Amino acid sequence: MAVHVERMDLNHDNFADVADSSTQIIAADSDPEGDTPRRYILLQNQGDQAVDVRVASAAVKDKSVRMYPEGGTFELKPIGGQFDDSAIFGIHVGSGGTMRVTIMEGKTRA
Q1: What is the tens place of the pLDDT at every residue in 35-74?
Q2: Could you tell me the residue ranges of all domains in the chain?
Q3: DSSP character for 78?
Q4: Mean pLDDT rounded to a whole number for the chain
Q5: Do the Cβ atoms of 44 and 72 come closer than 8 Å?
Q6: What letter does residue 79 receive in the DSSP assignment?
Q7: What predicted TM-score, i.e. pTM, was given to this entire model?
Q8: 7-109 architecture in CATH?
């Protein structure tokens, strides 16, 4: 019986500056059925104010998943073999300026 093994390549070089209005942090996977589909995302808030995040629709203050300031994280990984490859949006809970969010994205390859 052959065993299918996937390798994951992690990219740590991306970031988004999230405003006090809903901002796209990462775009939807453009080729989820292709050779290197996205299978993991870790976001880390580098700012001094909380950032609220939401998958597949605009983020809304106090009605989304909260990443706390200075290191708070949001992780998205497969559940039951399924991965949501939608865009992710964020909004910082303060007013004015932007908060830096670091993005770690994992793509698999056979």
Answers
A1: 888 899 999 999 999 999 999 999 999 999 999 999 999 9
A2: 7-109
A3: -
A4: 90
A5: yes
A6: B
A7: 0.89
A8: Sandwich (2.60)
